[in-house]
Amino acid sequence: MNHVKNLKEIRAVISRHKRWDSLFLVAGVMALMIAILTFIALFSHMLIDGMPRLSWDFFTSFPSRRPEAAGILSAWVGTTLVMLVTAVAAVPLGVAAGVYLEEYAPTNLLTEIIEINVTNLAGVPSIIYGLLALGLFVYQLGLGQSILAAGLTLALLILPIVIVATREAIRSIPVAIREGAYALGATKWQTVADHILPYSAAGILTGVIIGLARAIGETAPIITIGALTFIAFLPPAPVQAEFPFLSFEWLMAPFTVMPIQMFNWVSRPEEAFQANAAAAGLVLVVMTLLMNGLAIYLRYHLRKKIKW
Amino acid sequence: MVNEIMQTTRPGASTSSTIKSVVNNLTFRYGDFQALKDINMVVHEKQVTALIGPSGCGKSTFLRCFNRMHDLYPDNHYGGEIILHPDNENILSPNVDPIEVRMRISMVFQKPNPFPKSIFENVAYGLRIRGIKRRSILEEKVENALRNAALWEEVKDRLNDLAFNLSGGQQQRLCIARALATDPEILLFDEPTSALDPIATASIEELITDLKNKVTILIVTHNMQQAARVSDYTAYMYMGELIEFDVTDTIFIKPKNKQTEDYITGRFG
Ligand SMILES: Nc1ncnc2c1ncn2[C@@H]1O[C@H](COP(=O)(O)OP(=O)(O)O)[C@@H](O)[C@H]1O
Ligand SMILES: [Mg+2]
After folding, report:
1. Peptide bond into B86 cis (omega under 30)
2. CA A259, A264, A268 angle in degrees (round to 5)?
3. How far apart are CA A258 and CA A72, in angstroms?
4. Cα A255 to Cα A154: distance, rounded to the nearest angstrom
5. What ipTM did this prediction achieve?
6. pLDDT for the residue A76
7. pLDDT score, position A180
8. What are phi and psi of B51, to 5 degrees?
9. Counting Cβ atoms within 10 Å, is residue A201 exposed (0-12), middle (13-18) or buried (19+)?
10. Which residue of A lies nearest to B125 if distances are taken between CA atoms?
11. Which of B105, B129, B142, B179 could form a disulfide with B186 if both were Cys (CB 3.0 to 4.6 A apart)?
């Protein structure tokens, strides 16, 4: 008899507790829906407005006063080249800094201050980087309003992301693996080059792509350093027919990028330009999603052979 | 209990052999924590010396002095000497490069820790960092090491497979092969079977017994039966001190110290 009563009590307690489970489930799903629906609404709005404008010509035309003739050629070429500079500058710097902090830096106050600053740098508003770059790259170093200046600016912006990703990837390598290398008589550099870097490559690459995906949409710092909003020519081609075949003139060329092109069109009064802006936005979002997709792919497939 | 152990102890453990290493007044500190206190001991050449004692007594700390592993972390301090024969070098001396020590003395860890590389590259790594590049030499030495680790027959057809695809026991033998490939003077084992099942454990123990002919072995184990089965000499440690060191049979059958006896007979936590 006593046991039956006991059982009833237990069941009552369980069902009372389970109510919280269901409540949270509903709340969680709703929170998720708000986020997803907002994105879907924005995206479909852009899709409806911009889709009709997406054509081959849209990608191969320069901007124009006539909305139906205008395209994003100079913008996507500019974005691609700026991203190239950003990656080439941010990856070696960020990885080297991350490796130094994890493997070489002595544990002292100075290192700690540097570490805190690196983390905080990720939270600095991007326009501040633009101001810094305007003074340093554009005027001080005389790079002008060039692709190089823009790429370096965005590299600074994503440097903290690359550093943090590098450090996290390195930290996820078990101590036993590191000690295994040292125990065989490896030097610090051999351990880094033969083990630490290869095993954290997937994580670092993911961080780099996430950083680039952030940089690709940055507008404020690029405007600050003075990117053009209307540009009807391409930078000099990097590959040339005559000796020495490679040219770096493009680095110093004026440029525009996707978000600025978009911004330019959005601020036009004509209705037709809004459709252009939506189409450019669509391209930008797809570029970003593709980069994030690549990051996810790398995380799952490059790490497949490494399990700890 | 004592009788059981007597039966499992291998007969013929020799008591006279060359000395490979002498430990003189060894002390060790992690920051302010005194982990090893005035340890004096000898390591006999081509014999198995076991370090036993309750968890936290300093076995791993002691073992890791032999390959200067503690140099990897800040605030660690050695005192005293570990002399390596025949060259009479104190490997704890600040003038001796820890990398040189690690090239002479290999280590096998508690959990198998193969690199996420192929089986071949795992074994070849120690050779590569010694500057050996010739494929034929690498192949010969890798095969030898794998044979010595009793793994060759199992992996000879898949040397390019990832080491992670091996079973736990095979991984540990791979790590032994990796440590053997460079022809070390001493091989250190830190509880090499604690992450393995009984069958894999038995094969590792057998391997250790076989390896004795080639290399001096120092093994930490929390398992007394294991120490009794594989070792010729046993050191009993407690709270950072070496309580008793003797021929394994003596330690297990008639220890001189009361503390050792209590531990051996299980009257002690
Ligand atoms: N890195 C470390 N820093 C500080 N104390 C440590 C460290 N490693 C081990 N110790 C301490 O040193 C003592 C001996 O540890 P250890 O050698 O690992 O013992 P055992 O291998 O015999 O279980 C323990 O009290 C442990 O807490
Ligand atoms: Mg231990």
Report:
1. yes
2. 140
3. 7
4. 14
5. 0.91
6. 93
7. 97
8. -110, 120
9. middle
10. A184
11. B105
Instruction: Quote the ligand 2 centre to B70 CA distance (angstroms).
Output: 14
User: Where residue B226 sits, what CATH number does that domain have?
Assistant: 3.40.50.300
Give this prediction's pTM: 0.85
Residue B10 banded pLDDT, cuts 50, 70, 90? very low
Nearest of B15, B16, B36, B17 to residue B27 by alpha carbon: B36
What residues of chain B have any CB closer than 8 angstroms to a CB in chain A? Answer: 67, 69, 72, 74, 99-100, 102-103, 106-107, 109, 111, 113-116, 125-126, 129-130, 162, 164, 175, 178-179, 182
Reported as a pLDDT band with limits 50, 70 and 90, residue B197 is: very high
CA–CA separation, A213 and A161 (whole Å): 11
pLDDT in tens, B70-112: 999 999 999 999 999 989 999 999 999 999 999 999 999 999 9
B60 touches ligand 1 (CB under 6 Å):
yes
Task: Establish if B131 belongs to a structural domain.
Answer: yes
Taking the CB of residue B23, how many other CB atoms lie within 10 A of it? 22
Q: How far is it, in rounded angstroms, from Cα A243 to Cα A13?
A: 83
pLDDT tier at B11, thresholds 50, 70, 90 = very low
**Cβ A279 vs Cβ A56: under 8 Å:** no
Instruction: Using the mean position of ligand 2's atoms as its centre, give its distance from the Cα of residue B59 in Å.
Output: 6
Q: What DSSP designation does A186 have? A: -
> Domain for residue B269, yes or no?
no
Residue B139: both structure tokens together: 């192949």
- Share above pLDDT 70 across residues of chain A, in percent, rounded to a whole number: 99
Q: H or E segment at B33?
A: strand B33-44
Residue B3 has pLDDT above 70, yes or no: no
**Is B231 among the domain residues?**
yes
Chain A residues whose beta carbon lies within 8 Å of the beta carbon of residue B67 = 183
First to last CA, chain B: 16
Residue A121 has what pLDDT? 86
pLDDT digits (tens, 9 = 90+) for B211-254: 999 999 999 998 899 999 999 999 999 999 999 999 999 999 99
Q: Helix, strand, coil % (nearest 5) of chain B? A: 40, 25, 35
Cβ of A182 and B129 within 8 Å? no
**Residue B16 structural domain:** 2-264
Residue nearest (by alpha carbon) to ligand 1 atom 7: B30
Token couple for B141 = 């030495």
- Maximum Cα interatomic distance, chain A, rounded to a whole number of Å: 99
Q: Kindly state whether residue B245 falls inside one of the protein's structural domains.
A: yes
For every residue of A67-114, DSSP letters joined together read TTT---HHHHHHHHHHHHHHHHHHHHHHHHHHHIIIII--SSHHHHHH
H/E run at residue A298? helix A271-302
Inspect the interface and report whether the beta carbons of A183 and B67 lie closer than 8 Å.
Answer: yes
- 3-state DSSP of B114-181: CCCCEHHHHHHHHHHCCCCCCHHHHHHHHHHHHHHCCCHHHHCCCCCCEHHHCCHHHHHHHHHHHHHC
Per-residue CA distances from B186 to A3, A87, B101, B103, B156 (Å): 65, 47, 10, 10, 26
Task: Domain count for chain B, please give it.
Answer: 1
